[in-house]
Amino acid sequence: MSAAGKSGPCGAMLEEDPDQTYENVLAEIQSFELPLEATLRSVYDDQPNAHKRFMEKLDACIRNHDKEIEKMCNFHHQGFVDAITELLKVRADAEKLKVQVTDTNRRFQDAGKEVIVQTEDIIRCRIQQRNIITVVEKLQLCLPVLEMYTKLKEQMSAKRYYSALKTMEQLENVYFPRVSQYRFCQLMIENLPKLREDIKEISMSDLKDFLESIRKHSDKIGETAMKQAQQQKTFSVALQKQNNVKFGKNMYINDRIPEESNEIVLKHAIEEEDENEEEVLSVQDLVDFSPVYRCLHIYSVLGDEETFENYYRKQRKKQARLVLQPQSNMHETVDGYRRYFTQIVGFFVVEDHILHVTQGLVTRAYTDELWNMALSKIIAVLRAHSSYCTDPDLVLELKNLIVIFADTLQGYGFPVNRLFDLLFEIRDQYNETLLKKWAGVFRDIFEEDNYSPIPIVNEEEYKIVISKFPFQDPDLEKQSFPKKFPMSQSVPHIYIQVKEFIYASLKFSESLHRSSTEIDDMLRKSTNLLLTRTLCSCLLNLIRKPHIGLTELVQIIINTTHLEQACKYLEDFITNITNISQETVHTTRLYGLSTFKDARHAAEGEIYTKLNQKIDEFVQLADYDWTMSEPDGRASGYLMDLINFLRSIFQVFTHLPGKVAQTACMSACQHLSTSLMQMLLDSELKQISMGAVQQFNLDVIQCELFASSEPVPGFQGDTLQLAFIDLRQLLDLFMVWDWSTYLADYGQPASKYLRVNPNTALTLLEKMKDTSKKNNIFAQFRKNDRDKQKLIETVVKQLRSLVNGMSQHT
């Protein structure tokens, strides 16, 4: 911009009225309100001579002001002079006043020195007082902290760790914030973590001691718990039996008498329970659980509850594995099993107590998992160790322990169904041990038996036998004394022992929480095993013994008949002790019929075998002179002895069932006939004379007479004689020498010699032919009738032809 442009209106004003303009400029300068830069620039920039004229105006303005100042000074000069004059007059008075003031000040200072000293003392006292108040206030603030810390130390010394932790919380949350600026507070704050660690270590040590204590006391705890469960069960059983009597149920117990004194039993049970109430201690009495409570609370307060729970559960699982590990000889005595069970019960009773009195330390899921693990181990251990038990009494005691063990833990809420399932396995083993035991009992009974009918001489002996064995025979009752029971002593003894077996089996079935129907079924099945396996096996072994003769076998058959008839009484007996009607659906029946029937068949077969052996023994005594020319005229001695023996034996057989005696008699005759035939046809026998044939014929006639004498009643006609028909036709053929008839009628159903085999006839004829050559028996025929000799040759040829034809046909 140009200078003219910059001057703007001021330049225009100078051109129009320079004097007025300078006046305005001077007024602006004097006002001190506007910036001087623009004003002065307008003065110097507008016109070349403006500065000069402005300076002139400025000088003129200054002169005017000086004049005005001078006028004002002149106006006020007299007053100034007067004031100076008056001031000079006051000067002397001021000096005097100064002296007085100085003196007064000196005297005042001298007088105020003591006041100053006292004032300073007051100030100092006030400061001290203020400090004391401050100290008191601070001490009042710190003393509760120190008291709480002292209390903390006392609690630590008294081992009240849970209270100590609570005190620490109060210190940290309430007291320390008030005095946090003090050094002692910082020291206390730094010391608290160490105290907490000490408390954790001490409480953990107490927990370890507690765990060791309950490990040692587990058996005592378990024994106490099982004793309480057993007492409660005894009371319940007594009460149930009393109710059964009230409702008219006929219950039998182990003493094998009806429950007629249940009120006394119940009273004794109540009295015993009352007596033991003071003696039996609870788990809290046996174990001090305070360490675990304290430790749990301490770790809860410390916020480390999970660590404590994990440690506790881990240690308890280790202890559980130790408890579940049995001793190697546990199966030898019942005390070994009892210790095993009491330790396990004690362990889980403690866990159940911890579950119910603490929150979160153990849970139901944890205890269930631990119990399932333990239950599997327990079942495996019991299954293994019980398999070694051979004593039924020990197995029964083991069962009772398992029942009490299961009932005890069931009372604490643990599922025990698998234990009762295991008892069914052990029941089978128990039955096996019973069967082995009763096998020995039966063997002893059989060994002691004399196998003769039981003699009785008076009514008392009769009643004794009847009380032991359910025998009913009106004919025997009508007979006068002395008389005999048909069975031997072993029958009532066996019947009693079968009942004893049923009682023993019933003992195991008790307390298994099974219905009467199931118990009845178990008893019947076990009794069937006793009859069909054990007793039957003992009978079969007895029958096969070499020293058992025919008389003993006959008595055994009679005995089995009566035992078979007694099976229905055994069924009634089982029904009575289980209160189950025989008409109940699915009731198992006793298999006594098949058992004793098999034994009888075996005895009958043994009779046939021994009878044949006896016949063979007599036949071996035969001493024929096969070359004799004439018979002795009487039967051989061995044969007569054999026939007399058979007569006496068959007389004993009259006590047997008719078919048995008849079968034995027929078998004996057939075997005798076969033996005699084999004697004639023996390959070692090379020659037979006609005299020997005639002597042999006399023996056969005696056999036929014996058969016709009906040694055993019941045969029709000459049925028994038919056993000797083969011998009879063969001997008749040779005695009559009726070869023409034999050869002519051979093969005809009506043949007189139908039972004579050509081979048999040929063998015997050749033996006689050889004799004729050596002993000249047929010399008379050769001299007198050579045609007959030719006939013999012809018969031999024809017999050989028949034999060859038979072999070709075959």
Low-confidence stretches: 1-16, 247-278, 775-782
Q: Give a count of the beta strands, DSSP E runs of length 2 or more.
A: 2
Mean pLDDT: 81
**Class from secondary-structure proportions:** mainly alpha
Give the helix level as a range of percent.
Answer: over 70%
Query: Could you give the order of strands across the largest sheet?
Result: 1-2
Measured by DSSP, the beta-strand proportion falls in under 5%
What does the overall shape look like? rod-shaped
- Termini Cα gap: 168 Å
Q: Helix segment count?
A: 30
The major sheet is characterized as: 2 strands, antiparallel
Give the radius of gyration.
Answer: 69 Å
Protein name: Exocyst complex component
Organism: Ceratotherium simum simum (Southern white rhinoceros)
Domain Exocyst complex subunit EXOC6/Sec15 C-terminal: 419-767
Function: Component of the exocyst complex involved in the docking of exocytic vesicles with fusion sites on the plasma membrane.
